[in-house]
Amino acid sequence: xxxxxxxxxxxxxxxxxxxxxxxxxxxxxxxxxxxxxxxxxxxxxxxxxxxxxxxxxxxxxxxxxxxxxxxxxxxxxxxxxxxxxxxxxxxxxxxxxxxxxxxxxxxxxxxxxxxxxxxxxxxxxxxxxxxxxxxxxxxxxxxxxxxxxxxxxxxxxxxxxxxxxxxxxxxxxxxxxxxxxxxxxxxxxxxxxxxxxxxxxxxxxxxxxxxxxxxxxxxxxxxxxxxxxxxxxxxxxxxxxxxxxxxxxxxxxxxxxxxxxxxxxxxxxxxxxxxxxxxxxxxxxxxxxxxxxxxxxxxxxxxxxxxx
Amino acid sequence: xxxxxxxxxxxxxxxxxxxxxxxxxxxxxxxxxxxxxxxxxxxxxxxxxxxxxxxxxxxxxxxxxxxxxxxxxxxxxxxxxxxxxxxxxxxxxxxxxxxxxxxxxxxxxxxxxxxxxxxxxxxxxxxxxxxxxxxxxxxxxxxxxxxxxxxxxxxxxxxxxxxxxxxxxxxxxxxxxxxxxxxxxxxxxxxxxxxxxxxxxxxxxxxxxxxxxxxxxxxxxxxxxxxxxxxxxxxxxxxxxxxxxxxxxxxxxxxxxxxxxxxxxxxxxxxxxxxxxxxxxxxxxxxxxxxxxxxxxxxxxxxxxxxx
Lengths: 308, 308
Prior knowledge:
2 copies of one chain form a homodimer. Helix content of chain A is about 50%, strand content about 10%. By secondary structure, chain A is of the alpha/beta class. Chain A has one domain (about 30-225, about 235-305): HUPs (Rossmann fold, 3-Layer(aba) Sandwich), CATH 3.40.50. In chain A, strand 4, helix 3 (about 90-105) and strand 5 (about 110) form a beta-alpha-beta unit. In chain A, helix 1 (about 25-40) crosses helix 9 (about 210-220) and helix 2 (about 60-70) crosses helix 9. The interface between A and B is medium-sized, with 26 and 26 residues.
């Protein structure tokens, strides 16, 4: 196969776009695609101060790399969760994030959950859920809270995350299977900061297949953590990803169509304004100031206050 | 396993309801479930004249059987499509429908497409699509047209079809994968006759798993056509059914939840009124009088007028 751009030897085939690309043009094509998504969904401008949440994985480090190359002002935020899981997962992912920042002369903020709150994510989980299931919901809650807190306290205009198309399609699939109106109405490439204490959020990789991001990280020579979080094994989101991968292999492009037609339908007014009742009922948490739908304290502050 | 109702020997296990049932109580349970759906979705009353579209398959014949047993006034409509496919599919399905009607002393209307229109479905398909793919879209169009025509001409209050949960979930899945707003806004257990020339339609089996309907037909001793339509092989709807079956076997109840949460979200106002623009733009076809979104003649009349 030849590179569609230069006729040289292609190293990768981008199935859904019927492209063959050499290394050089692939490393040019991916940032180009990301730039188009940023523009199409009006994510942010060159004048904005951007905070990229990085985990040490291929998606978030590649996102940081791409935004930096595209000329955006983007700093990193690493949240240390205190997860060991036999592979020293948190240590290794922090080391790789710091290494990336140092190599590129970029600023990385580090929030160490065990240091700040006196407990690691698994410790909080075992205290609050008493061993019931994996600590994923605790982790999601804590990360969301810390990302909002840091983005706001450090004065960033927008927080970006490395969610790729596979992530977004799996979440959409999960929300669709149970027709979760509020989640459907809110899901999208941009979440506006229309509530007190919450950062504006954007997902510049939302149209990029996971396999394409893996290829980008490898070809760009980004060193990232290969291991999944040890707690992710058996997660429903991974099951939905597998189901969508089956669909994708039988109907190439199905995953992208599923996500893009959803965005288009939403943009076209498919959902009624009252489809997201949660957002309308939000109020600032009296402790941390972040908007919440809960009565009184937000879920994070309740969790850290020792309630189960 | 014992029957949950009488303690006798169970012959079937209804997984999603955690029930074991003996033959007698299973044959009582299914009509009970159907009666609840009829009531819940306000499908029709005992005073209504009902026309059941029957194909000779397990679902439609069981539906006819159940409605008759529940005391509804229900006649049958068989549409002969002129499909042979090596198994004499149309002949055999007509014979079984007529046999069922005769055994139960019920009225069956028969519309013979080749006699009325001079061409069988495969003939129309080969003329209009010139061999491109299976004649399924031609068949769907013709059946919908004839069902509306007969229900209206013969003065029935409502037309019922044997679509089961697996059918409905597969259609919903297909509409969701491409976020087809109009189809999503319209899909449901009842379609009101709010447009000229279109019959009121209801699907009393919409909450019944296909496997439960097969068991009903077998235990009730209904003789039905086992063969799928020879053209259905490889149809996308069958592919989606298989995907949903995989989901169901990994997460029992997922199929029912998917469909019921959709109906609930819709009822709760998830979709905006403008989500179904097609329905607002309908007008009666100048030839047959059935409402259509097409300019001028409806798709059926155009097809029969020789356009391709």
